[in-house]
Structure formats: structure tokens, C-alpha cells
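Per-record layout

source: Neogobius melanostomus
name: Dipeptidase
length: 421
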Amino acid sequence: MLLLCPSCRVPHKSEAMSQTHRIILFSLWTLISGYAEDRVRDLMSRYPLIDGHNDLALQLRKLYNNRLNHINVNNMSNIATDITRLHAGHVQAQMFAVYVMCGAQDKDAVRLTLEQIDVLRRMCTEYKDFELVTSLRQKIACMLSIEGGHSIDSSLPALRMFYQLGVRSMSLTHTCNTPWAESSSKHHTFYQKQNNSLTSFGKAVVEEMNRLGMIIDLSHTSWGTAEAVLNHSKAPVIFSHSSSYAVCNNDRNVPDRLLKKLKNNRGLIMVNLHTDFISCKKEANISHVADHFDHIKKVIGADSIGIGSDFEGAVRFPKGLQDVSKYPALIGELLRRNWTEQELADILRQNFIRIFDEVEKMRDQLVWERPSEVQISMEEVKNPCRLVLRPPSSSCSSPNRSQLCTLLALVLLLSNLILLQ
Ligand SMILES: *[C@@H]1O[C@H](CO)[C@@H](O)[C@H](O)[C@H]1NC(C)=O
Ligand SMILES: *[C@@H]1O[C@H](CO)[C@@H](O)[C@H](O)[C@H]1NC(C)=O
Ligand SMILES: *[C@@H]1O[C@H](CO)[C@@H](O)[C@H](O)[C@H]1NC(C)=O
Ligand SMILES: *[C@@H]1O[C@H](CO)[C@@H](O)[C@H](O)[C@H]1NC(C)=O
Ligand SMILES: *[C@@H]1O[C@H](CO)[C@@H](O)[C@H](O)[C@H]1NC(C)=O
Ligand SMILES: *[C@@H]1O[C@H](CO)[C@@H](O)[C@H](O)[C@H]1NC(C)=O
Ligand SMILES: [Zn+2]
């Protein structure tokens, strides 16, 4: 390598000799690397990438307040994602995260979630390069995945309506616990559960997602929740953007013991490229990323691995993998590490297609099950914003409410009396 660098000092001997040496080596190197690049390009045009996680919609909200009319998604050089570079990176399908901050839990999470779905649905229909898809029968392009169970406000009907709007995956938590599942993060202790990382309502959410044919995503959940879901789900699940805990011990990553359970479940881990989860340091390069792929392959095989970049959702990415046009560099590194074309085709897209297919097959098997009417109890949600449209007697607790209820009861009594007459 030193010899190839034009500005490097070359040892004396015969100057002419080393010059020829350099030229020959340089041509050889360009030939080989040119060949490797062609091989990656050829492979990726036959097996274009399905990426498991991109937070573009979060940036659209933060930077532009979702005003799509004022921007050009073809070219957004201030962030890591735009249509031009998605093409350059051979990305053919992207799961776009529908994410709202945990601060919205028990407040306006549902409205904000709808607004994020709206901006993604608009983007994916207004730009001719995108196509919004909801099943594998169609050409794949934009897929919608909710990031964080707080978005459904503990309501299975809300979950079903999000499915109707095209959402095909949901991670059960973000950094906050929900009343029914636990986060890997220790930032928010609200709704912390002891020895019950998936409550009975949580199990109902899992069952309903199985019935709907929605992919269950365990990235961001605690390991306890992940294990409980792996025990309970009838369909394969994914970690849409998590890496290996054995390589970098960050709680967002997955330990080998859960990887093995994931393999039994026929599920998928889509490796997160965020530097902090890759090297556990502030810096990383493509070798560090490839180490995660090698390790996970060693533990559970290449047919359980995918890629879930987390572009736009994280701030630091490894050298050489800074934006959505750079995936070929990663595939090139795995080729150098002797990954076979079949294994690369699998991690680029075939594995994801298999999972989605199996999730939909399970949905088809469950076709005779009726929509779940399980409801969470008021004690479990502790949400003062919930309006309860039930007979007054069942829900009066606060003094204010009891006054209101007495009043309502009186009105009802009076109107009944009037009607009876
Ligand atoms: C993208 O935008 C930048 C600056 O906004 C401009 O310099 C560049 O030429 C544009 N590229 C394309 C392909 O339109
Ligand atoms: C939870 O489990 C731990 C260890 O198994 C035990 O020490 C603790 O008492 C349990 N807590 C509850 C609330 O059951
Ligand atoms: C999952 O199942 C295993 C084996 O049946 C059991 O040992 C474990 O306690 C279960 N874990 C949870 C969280 O349900
Ligand atoms: C990545 O960094 C490590 C040191 O942390 C180094 O050994 C390795 O060669 C680097 N890989 C690349 C592709 O630059
Ligand atoms: C890849 O395979 C070749 C030929 O079998 C071998 O020489 C080389 O050491 C292998 N490289 C790695 C990184 O395993
Ligand atoms: C309702 O409750 C709040 C706080 O508990 C109190 O400040 C307010 O006066 C109450 N209103 C009525 C009508 O009792
Ligand atoms: Zn995330």
C-alpha cells in the first residue's frame, strides 16, 4: 500500500526500478479493486438492498416541520439520505420509521404518529422514484414501521387502524417503557415493570400483530421483553436496527443467548451501523461493522442477518459508511472476508423477504380469528388524558369527576322520568 501512495518517500536503490514497480503495482491494484467494485455492483444490482431502518421522517419534521412542498427529496446534501444517493447505494426498499418522541406518550402521540405517516405517505406517492408498498406482492420500495409502542396509546383498535394506513411493522418500545412492555433504556422509569416485561396486554398486542400480519420489531426493547416476545410470538420477529452485544456491549445490541432464541423463532437481526453500537467508541470503520456480521454469522448463520442502518436516527456513522450511497463498501468488505454471493444476497434482501412472507403466511393461518377486544385497565395506563365513555358509575374516582357524575346521573334520571311520562 505504501508504494501506491504517490507522495510517499520511496527507498533509493534504483529510482527507475521503483518507478516501474510502482506503475505495475498500481495498475494491478486498480485492476483488482476495479474488479471487486464491478463484482459488488453486479451483485447489488441483482440483489438490491432492503434496509430495515431509516429515520428520514424524523429529519423532515425536525428540519422542515414536514413541509414537503418546500424541499427537494432528490437532493438533500445536509443529511445522509436522498433519492439520488439511495439509487447510488443500490437501495431498492426502505423501512421508514414512523417515530414520535417518548415525551408524547399519554399526550398527543397518536396525532403525531398520524402526521408522520402522512408525511411519509405523501413523500412516497409524490416522488416518482418511490412507491408505497404494503405487501410483497408488489414492487417493494417504501415500507412504514412505527418506532415505539407508545404510538398506539395502549389501544388495539389504534394498532389496527395504523395497519390500515399501511404500517407493516412496529417496535414495541422506543426509549420509554409502555404500560405493557419494557425498554432497553433506563432513561424513563415510568411504567417500569418488575419481573413482568410483557404484561397480559403486551401479549395481546403480540397476538394481534401476529393476526394482522404486522412484523414485530424488538429493537429498543429490554432483553426481558425480547425474550418474552420470542416465547410468545407465533410468527418470526425482527430486530430492525440492533447489532451484536458480544462485539460491542451496548444495551441496544443483542446478546448471543437471544440470538439463538431468534434463530429458533426463524427471525432476523438487521445490523445497526451507528458508530456507538458498532465499536462502543466515538469512531469506527467498515472493519468494525464487518466484525458484527462475522460474529453473528458464526453464532446463528447468515440466513438470520440483514442490514438496518439507522441513518437519520443516529448522529455518528463509521468512516466510509456515512450515507445511503455507501452500502457497496460494506458488501465489498464482506466479499473480501469470503462471504459467498448466496450469503450476501440473503443479507441484502432474501432473508427479509422470507420473514415478511412467513409473517403473512401466519396471518393467513389466523384468518378465522376475530379482531381482539382486549382492553387495558385504567389502573395500568395511569393516563389522565383518557376520557372514559362508559356509564358514569363505573369510572368516578376523583372528587371533580364524582361531582360531574352525580350531575350526569341526575340528568339521566330526569330525562328518563320525562321520557316515561
Ligand atoms: C444538490 O444541491 C447542492 C446544493 O444545494 C448542489 O450544489 C448540487 O449541484 C445539487 N445536486 C444535484 C444532483 O442536483
Ligand atoms: C423479581 O425477581 C427477582 C429475582 O428473581 C426477585 O428478587 C424480586 O423479588 C422479584 N420482584 C417481584 C416484584 O416479584
Ligand atoms: C421463555 O421460555 C423459556 C423456556 O420455556 C423459559 O425458561 C423462560 O423463563 C421464558 N422467558 C420469559 C421471559 O417468558
Ligand atoms: C479499522 O480500524 C482498525 C483499528 O481500530 C484497523 O485495525 C483496521 O485496519 C481499520 N480498517 C479499515 C478498513 O480501515
Ligand atoms: C478467503 O479465502 C482464501 C482462499 O481460500 C484464503 O486464502 C483467505 O485467507 C480467506 N480470507 C479470509 C478473510 O478468511
Ligand atoms: C377540581 O379539582 C381541582 C384540583 O383537584 C380543583 O382545583 C378544582 O377546584 C376542582 N373543581 C371543582 C369544580 O371542584
Ligand atoms: Zn431507533
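summary: The longest helix spans residues 15-46. Confidence is low (pLDDT under 50) at residues 1-16.
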